[in-house]
Specification:
The complex is a heterodimer of chains A (119) and B (106). Helices cover 0% and strands 51% of the residues of chain A. Chain A is mainly β. In chain A, the strands form 2 sheets. In chain A, strands 2, 4, 5, 6, 9, 10 and 11 form a 7-stranded mixed β-sheet that branches. Chain B has 106 residues and is mainly β. In chain B, a hairpin with a 2-residue loop joins strand 7 and strand 8 (94-97). Classes of the chains: A mainly beta (119), B mainly beta (106). Chain A binds chain B through residues 35, 37, 44-47, 50, 57, 59, 61-62, 95, 100, 102-107, 109-112, and chain B through 1, 31, 33, 35, 37, 42-45, 48-49, 54, 84, 86, 88, 90, 93-100.
Chain lengths: 119, 106
């Protein structure tokens, strides 16, 4: 059974940094692209970043480009999102999501980890 | 970025058919998928590649995509279908979500 477990969320001051992680199990992690999607309180879903199975290709939303870095450790079956220069508007639940076999969609999601940016 | 537009809310009576639209420029040229999200829960994929249902998703969920509009249709809507629904499209490594539609079953 596929399982995705995010961790690392918390309270951080504006301008600070935080790294969130996603531990994956139940599938061949290195064979699948992974993504981060966030959801601000009471708002809709917003795609943040994607990484290929090998880690060789990465993609970012304009809203986080230059401030966030996605990475993965296939030996540990873990996905990461390093977030720097955090802003109040980055406050959200951050979900990791596995790309479907056929691509173009996310077939499994974690439970999310809350990142709160506030002074 | 690519904009996907959904109606903020749709209401349907139990047992009736609910249709939720998602509009975007030449959307029919892209694959569209749909997610259901209930309060306090993570999103669940209900339709992928325009009309395909993942295993475990009831047959009452169907999808279509043509021209500038994709549609999620829920036939024989049940109270447990009340949720937020998001469309999503993918292009060249980036992902776009619609703003979401709150489906109310009343």
């Amino acid at each position: 059974e596929v399982h995705l477990l995010e961790s690392g969320g918390g309270l951080v001051q504006p301008g600070g940094s935080l790294r969130v992680s996603c531990a994956a199990s139940g599938f061949t992690f290195s064979s699948y692209a992974m993504n981060w999607v966030r959801q601000a309180p009471g708002k809709g879903l917003e795609w943040v970043s994607a990484i290929s199975g090998s880690g060789g290709s990465t993609y970012y939303a304009d809203s986080v480009k230059g401030r966030c870095t996605i990475s993965r450790d296939n030996s540990k079956n873990t996905l990461y999102l390093q977030m720097n220069s955090l802003r109040v508007e980055d406050t959200a639940v951050y979900y990791c999501a596995k790309v479907h076999n056929y691509g173009n969609s996310f077939d499994y999601w974690g439970q999310g980890t809350l990142v709160t940016v506030s002074s | 970025s690519y904009e996907l537009t959904q109606p903020p809310s749709v209401s349907v009576s139990p047992g009736q058919t609910a249709s939720i639209t998602c509009s975007g420029d030449k959307l029919g040229d892209r694959y569209v998928c749909w997610y259901q999200q209930k309060p306090g829960q993570s999103p669940v994929l209900v339709i992928y590649q325009d009309f395909k249902r993942p295993s475990g998703i009831p047959e009452r969920f169907s999808g279509s995509n043509s021209g500038n509009t994709a549609t999620l249709t829920i036939s024989g809507t049940q109270a447990l279908d009340e949720a937020d629904y998001y469309c999503q499209a993918w292009d060249s490594g980036t992902v776009d979500f619609g703003g979401g539609t709150k489906l109310t079953v009343l």
